[in-house]
Amino acid sequence: GIRFLSKKCQERFALIGELLNQEQLDIALLQELWCEKDFQFLKQKLSTFYPYAHLFKRQDGADESFCKFTNALVLSGFIGSGLAVFSRYRIHDAFLYQYSLNGYPYMVQHGDWFGGKAVGKVSLNIGGLNVYVFVTHLHAEYCREKDQYLPHRVVQAWELQQFIRHTSAGADVVLLAGDLNMHPEDLGFRLLRLSTGLQDSFSQTSSFSGCEGGFTLLSENPFTHPEDLTAFGGGIRIDYIMFKGSQEVDISCESLSTTEGSVPYSDHEALTAHFLFRTKEKGNGCSREESSCVSEDLPELINTVNEARTEVKVGLHCSERMRYTAARTGIMGLVLLVLELAIAAVPLFALGAEQPFPKASFYLLGALCFAVLFSTVMLYIFYSMEVKALQEAEDQMRLVVSGLQEQLKECTKAQSSDQS
Amino acid sequence: GIRFLSKKCQERFALIGELLNQEQLDIALLQELWCEKDFQFLKQKLSTFYPYAHLFKRQDGADESFCKFTNALVLSGFIGSGLAVFSRYRIHDAFLYQYSLNGYPYMVQHGDWFGGKAVGKVSLNIGGLNVYVFVTHLHAEYCREKDQYLPHRVVQAWELQQFIRHTSAGADVVLLAGDLNMHPEDLGFRLLRLSTGLQDSFSQTSSFSGCEGGFTLLSENPFTHPEDLTAFGGGIRIDYIMFKGSQEVDISCESLSTTEGSVPYSDHEALTAHFLFRTKEKGNGCSREESSCVSEDLPELINTVNEARTEVKVGLHCSERMRYTAARTGIMGLVLLVLELAIAAVPLFALGAEQPFPKASFYLLGALCFAVLFSTVMLYIFYSMEVKALQEAEDQMRLVVSGLQEQLKECTKAQSSDQS
After folding, report:
1. Hey, are the CB atoms on A94 and B402 less than 8 Å from each other?
2. Which residue numbers delimit the Endonuclease/exonuclease/phosphatase domain (chains A, B) (predicted)?
3. Do A388 and B60 lie within an 8 Å CB cutoff?
4. Are residues A273 and A402 in the same domain?
5. pLDDT for residue A46
6. DSSP for B333-374?
7. Which chain B residues are Cβ-neighbours of A289 within 8 angstroms?
């Protein structure tokens, strides 16, 4: 919902509010709720059934007046994470992690860079259980065949799984929902699924109703471009609700449903899942979460992380090349500037020369040199940041892979000693 | 260690390498290791006793050549987190969180903004125990009486404790070390200590050797400015090693020592702590980490979080005012520009006027208007980001306080029902 830019923004928020009040859910997770004013509107509208709410604000935030102003100016960005949680249960704690990579600032038409993508976590207590709920929105995919953002999305998926893994050790139940902008077979989604152990509610539920194939971006929806989706059979599934239990709690997805493009809430279809929590009997006593030997999954996980590492390396190579190009162009601009200054110095030494000095073109060329220098320096800094972010992700992946391989080795050893 | 800017940079890294090899520690945590080249130098030098190493790279990173280049240009920043870990034990996993606020970019002389402050986490396995080690570096304090960075440091302390609390649920032992830039009685440090349960090794150890009062910034050190420290009795304690056990493991600090300013390693004194881990007997069976009623600490924690909230609100008020000033100045620049254009338009309509048009001053004024407009727009965006970050921190604090108050109420109820 970007005011003035998005179509029928306020009507849609009113519709969303009505839908949520009608459904009376336990938790509602929204993305792309950019303006604080719209959040306050929903908060008030939903206060009866969803008394607790949190909008993840940071960063690149804008207050309401700025929001109106910039949106009007198509400077839609600087507008926070856009992630919001409405809940029937008290929100005990909230935490936000911002992804280190999120597109390119100069790709203004794609606009992802301006909308600070992030993952938010809230802690709830539902019937004595620690329930950690994550909500996120990953970088959009604009062209599947030649996806220049693939390394960015893979790094985001990596950081998402790192955040979930590192922050959900104390949870009885983990839920994740959001617009992942990845197809179910995509590298980033496999990475997320395998490394966190989160299950996809669409593939796990016994009762599904809604669009064929669980599509959440549908050609029937009035806000989508049907021509983008014909190649995929009229729809794609890129929004997910994922879940995981723990050693104490079993969780199962009782039902999953999607809206079907008829009511114009959003360009994406809404997903609704019902879960059943069951406390496990404490039969096997005090089992601390040891590095359990699920060796059938380990090799697949190692392969997936290695695949992601390769993708990140490709991205690294690419952005190093871009940085090199920026540096080269910058040096050319500098040389041109020095030449200009030399030309300007000539009349000083050769006083009384006849030719008139070409002032206009001189200033124009000078301004051009400065523009080239400034933009290449900015690009160089930006690509340097990108290189470091990719390197950090690759380093982390290397550590995790070597740890997993160690674990696999021990498992195989343990199994073979069991057999002998 | 900033090359060219810092004094005797390479000699100091060589000295640090020798010291660490001599001590043969289990884990060494460094801050302000800005250049990858220096990290590689140390990694090789320490490879015998510290075979595992990780440098937290992201963001604002720079490769080696850029590092040299920018350092020479006093653009020292864009140079990563500066946090590094050297370890005798395999590093299984690494994760980085970047603070949302870190000074002001226009305070170039303080330079904190350029050095992307962050907290890094590594997971180690020491004798079968999950040991999580955190290393961080908070924003420096330049003037204690009128500390304009106080809200930034409080938000950093808040985010640090959030990161530690959220990511250390699965740990047997938690260690935190770093330059916190806070005195022991400071709000941020109390917040960190109370909310995470981490203990300060200086106050907990039975055997301390080194500077009086545990000082880590000392007037005797050749790299400090003694005049800054005379007000504090010749030194301050702003670097810490903190620790926490778990329900399974007891941890105690056997000894703590500091260097004493004689060998010129760094402007801060090095801290060395020895810890003893003891696995607890599993007497009380399978005790899940329930919200234990430590009601004697709860009121203090609530007070501290409220104090931090007040501080953040003051900062919020301040940065909203700054943003307002930026907007007002920007509008003045805009009005001036419009006036200029009107003046420029006059000769077009009044052709044949006698007075010569004052070209030079016209262009000068125009350039000034543009400069004012550009800088105020940048400042406005920057302050908007600051406001959002402060708001998010305040929102999180509000959630946590209300959760804690709920907990306190239940505790009091439980206690009174016990008594009756």
Report:
1. no
2. 12-268
3. yes
4. no
5. 95
6. HHHHHHHHHHHHHHHHHSTT-SSPP-HHHHHHHHHHHHHHHH
7. 170
User: Are B306 and B407 contained in the same domain?
Assistant: yes
Cβ contacts of A286 on chain B, cutoff 8 Å: 282, 285-286
Taking an 8 Å cut-off on Cβ atoms, the answer to whether B388 and A61 are in contact is yes
Q: Are residues A162 and A199 in the same domain?
A: yes
Residue A3 lies in a domain: no
Q: Is residue A143 part of a domain?
A: yes
Q: Please give the residue range of the domain that contains residue B148.
A: 9-283
pLDDT of residue A74 exceeding 60? no
CA-to-CA distance for A78 and A62, rounded, in angstroms? 6
Which among A59, A93, A168 is the nearest to B100, CB-wise?
A59
Helices A150-167, A187-196: inter-axial angle, 10-degree rounding: 10
Q: Report which residue type is found at B402.
A: S
Number of domains within chain B:
2
Mean pLDDT, all residues of chain A: 83
Which of chain A's residues have a Cβ under 8 Å away from the Cβ of B95?
Answer: 162-163, 166, 396
pTM, two decimals, is: 0.85
Tokens of A6: 């998005």
Asked if the Cβ–Cβ distance from B80 to A388 is below 8 Å, we say yes
Please report where in the chains the tokens 């990845």 appear, as a residue.
A182
Same domain, yes or no, for A57 and A205? yes
Please check whether residues B371 and B268 belong to one and the same domain: no
A108 and A257 part of one domain: yes
The DSSP code for B49 is T
Task: Write the Ramachandran bin of B24: left for phi over 0, alpha for psi from -120 to 50, otherwise beta.
Answer: left
| Nearest C-alpha in A relative to B395 | A54
Question: Quick check: is A268 catalytic?
Answer: yes
